[in-house]
Design a protein that fits this description.
Blueprint lengths: L2 E4 L1 H6 L2 H6 L5 E5 H10 L5 H15 L8 E2 L5 E5 L16 H12 L5 E4 L3 H9 L4 E2 L15 E5 L2 H10 L13 E5 L5 E7 L4 E4 L16 H11 L5 E5 L6 H15 L6 E5 L15 H8 L1 H11 L13 H10 L3 E5 L12 E5 L6 H8 L7 E6 L15 H9 L5 E5 L7 H9 L2
Parallel strand pairs: 1-2, 1-5, 2-4, 5-6, 7-8, 11-15, 11-16, 12-13, 12-14, 14-15
Antiparallel strand pairs: 3-4, 8-9, 9-10
Length: 437
């Protein structure tokens, strides 16, 4: 049986049971130095803290024979190893440093066992190689962006099929699409006919006729926004994800549809907007004030969109004399709109509400799971994000919660996804997306 020594970052990447199952049955060695680091992470209120606590509880359940080795039903055997003080290492390595202690244990075990060090730390792998220690990266599950589901596709059809599509209110495409996948059907003259695939019936059906929300309609000739608004306004679709670069209208359309459903149609009790509070650039530190005042500082883009949407909204309460900022404030006071930090979502049950999760590219898979599992009966969740603008240093374009959601939920009857590509903000914004990837 071969032996693997785990670095701390491996145990912080995902729950310990998933980590173990990613290895074939083997001897798993956890250095004492790693336990000390786990203890430092256990108090964090993020995925690392969660994984640290899980790992500590797991190891505690295996006492008192960890120093001898504890066999598991999975075929793995778990050991906790103390320092190997008799191992010769270069003087340049700081003796008491955690990485040095992990390298020393691996080097010591190498004398009698077929051992390798598993770590996500590139420098540790380089040092290990220079010491003759086999080391490998712990590759997390990644989504193939080249094959990521876009939510829509094209289909060439005959003029007779176009006629049948409108006369019968549906069209059998002769091939299977993903549930709620949108289809642009092109006829012989180049005309476009949008529809959505209904998996239960095996047909493509026309979209809703009135695709506008709270005074907002899709931009001219922007078929992707047409698809998005259709998904947002369909009460049968309970989860919508939107992926696209800056200026494509993700947040604006999600908020417009939410206000339409909450304020005008009364289908939902409240519009809840949440996001992960991660700074772009240097953090300015703790903010003063109440929870609402703290959150407001992070929600500038949301306020901008809300003010744009309510600028023409006028009733007895929201008359023409009030400015957009005052109208947004009144919407919040009346309970139509609530801004919430992701921190306060955990533990809640949220029924009959329209939830917009903004900037979801900064969320981990665990964050996304927390949000989705908070949804009560009658709730709709809209998840938006841009994988070109990730501020969470632990995430990449291929392993963040948003792309994981798209990859895992594809094909579900209550789910729809749309990838937007055309910037509608301004010519300058469009050039920024194109020239500054």
């Amino acid at each position: 049986m071969n032996t693997v020594v785990l670095d701390t970052n491996v145990l912080l990447d995902r729950p310990v049971d998933q980590t173990l199952l990613s290895f074939n049955p083997c001897k798993v060695v956890i250095p004492l130095a790693v336990l000390s680091e786990l203890d430092n992470f256990k108090g964090l209120d993020d995925s690392r803290g969660y994984c640290a606590r899980q790992a500590i509880r797991f190891l505690d359940s295996l006492r008192p024979n960890l120093h001898k080795g504890v066999p598991l039903d999975s075929g793995h055997t778990i050991f906790v190893e103390v320092n190997h003080v008799d191992v010769e290492l270069p003087e340049a390595l700081i003796r008491n440093h955690t990485d040095t202690r992990i390298l020393a244990i691996t080097k010591g075990l190498q004398k009698t066992e077929d051992v390798s060090l598993v770590t996500q730390d590139t420098c540790v792998r380089i040092i290990a190689d220079s010491l003759g220690i086999p080391a490998e990266n712990y590759v997390v599950e990644r989504v193939d962006l080249d094959n990521l589901y876009s939510g829509w596709s094209e289909l060439h059809i005959t003029d007779r099929e176009v006629q049948s599509f409108y006369e019968n209110g549906c069209f059998e495409p002769g091939k299977k699409f993903t549930a709620n996948e949108y289809v642009v059907m092109r006829d012989s003259s180049g005309g476009k006919h949008p529809g959505r695939y209904h998996a239960g019936r095996g047909v493509v059906a026309p979209l809703g006729r009135e695709l506008h929300a709270f005074g907002i309609s899709p931009a001219e000739n922007n078929i992707e926004q047409v698809f998005l608004l259709d998904a947002l306004l369909d009460p049968g679709i309970q989860l919508v994800s939107v992926l696209g670069p800056a200026g494509t209208g993700k947040t604006l359309l999600a908020l417009a549809a939410g206000l339409q459903q909450v304020v005008n149609l009364k289908r939902y009790d409240k519009l809840v907007v949440t996001r992960e509070l991660i700074p772009h650039g240097r953090d300015i530190g703790a903010l003063p004030g109440t929870k609402e005042e703290k959150i407001s500082a992070w929600m500038g883009a949301v306020f901008d969109n809300l003010q744009y949407l309510v600028r023409h909204f006028s009733t007895g309460k929201y008359d023409e004399k009030s400015n957009p900022a005052e109208r947004v404030k009144r919407f919040m006071e009346e309970g139509f709109v609530e801004l919430e930090s992701l921190t306060y979502i955990r533990g809640r049950s949220i029924p009959n509400q329209w939830i917009v999760v903004d900037e979801a590219q900064n969320l981990t898979k665990e964050n996304i799971k927390t949000i989705i599992t908070r949804a009560g009966k009658g709730t709709k969740i809209v998840v938006t994000g841009d994988i070109q603008q990730i501020d969470n240093c632990r995430l990449t374009a291929t392993n963040n919660g948003l792309v994981t959601l798209v990859d895992k939920f594809k094909g579900q009857e209550i789910y729809a996804h749309i990838s937007l590509s055309r910037s509608e903000r301004s010519k300058l914004a469009a050039l920024g997306v194109e020239l500054l990837p």
